[in-house]
Amino acid sequence: MMGEYGHGWGMGWWWIIGLIIVIGVVWMVVKSMNTNSRGKLPSGKSALDILNERYARGEIDKEEFEERKKNLL
User: Fold this and answer.
1) At what angle do helices 62-72 and 47-57 cross, to 10 degrees?
2) CA–CA separation, 73 vs 61, rounded Å?
3) Among the residues of 1-73, which ranges form H helices?
4) How far is CA 57 from CA 22, 37, 50, 53, in A?
5) Per residue in 28-42, pLDDT tens?
């Protein structure tokens, strides 16, 4: 008799543990998606800061710099 009650109780715990695992996986996927969608800019830098750095490094010329700056502002 005791064995039947013990087995049923054990199955209930496995169901709860499985549910917790599924919730954890869903939470990690959602968190990962939110992290990726926040933007690809390094933290603390604006688009104008990056544009200024690219111009200073010589990656873009003055004409392209001015055009992109005008688009940003």
Assistant:
1) 180
2) 18
3) 2-37, 47-57, 62-72
4) 48, 28, 11, 6
5) 998 888 765 555 555
pTM of the model: 0.42
Phi and psi (nearest 5°) for 41? Answer: -80, 140
Token code pair at residue 35: 């992290």
Residues in the chain: 73
Domains of the chain by residue range: 1-40, 41-73
Q: List pLDDT tens digits, range 40-51.
A: 555 678 888 999
The per-residue b/e assignment along 30-63, b for 16 or more CB within 10 angstroms, e otherwise, is eeeeeeeeeeeeeeeeeeeeebeeebeeeeeeee
The residue to which tokens 């111009």 are assigned:
55
Q: 53: closest CA among 68, 36, 70?
A: 68
